[in-house]
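Sample pair:
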Amino acid sequence: MTKRKASLERVEGHDTLWTIRKGNLRCIIVGLPDGGVCLYSPVEKISGMVAETHDVRFLLAPNHYHNKAVSEHVQVFGEARLVCTDAARPRLDKITGQRFETLSSLADALPDNVEFAEPEGLKTGELWLVVRTGNELAWIVTDAFCGLQDKEDETSRPGFLKTFPKYGLQDKALFSDWVRARLETASPTMIIPCHGEIVRGPSLRTDLENLLKTL
């Protein structure tokens, strides 16, 4: 199988979102009002590509497992601020040898159409970003969902990483109820995951509800 080369692309329907996908991993670039960007889940060996096109102000480790590229990006973007959730910080500080700030500085820097969402029932300190642009509502997620592609018609659908139930879930009922409540109030039109394909389409809510039943 040919390895997918890293490529930077704008997210359709969102003027201030880009992604860089390397293999099956994805880093999401979020534009800030001051002209800089935040990297959600930096991926190894892409820092040079980002440096050519964007002024990186924040490096966001979106859970305590997504830490392998932190050192590389700190070296390249020495002025960028490292941030994560309170739950993820102890392990991230220990594993990376870096000091992570709270989310407050990033919250103040984000555009008005982007907000945080911390899923309940997980044990990894995962943080999502919820982005509203016109009629589009995107969930940017880490390990809670991935994007699977049908090999026959190349359509995509949400799925779970094989490791998620064991290493990501702490309370499956709490997580499922939390996601269902989000779907009731503001269902996404797309999911931009760190693993796999971007998922969008009219059946997304139903697909997510059915997926939760498999936990």
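The first strand starts at residue 7 and ends at 10.
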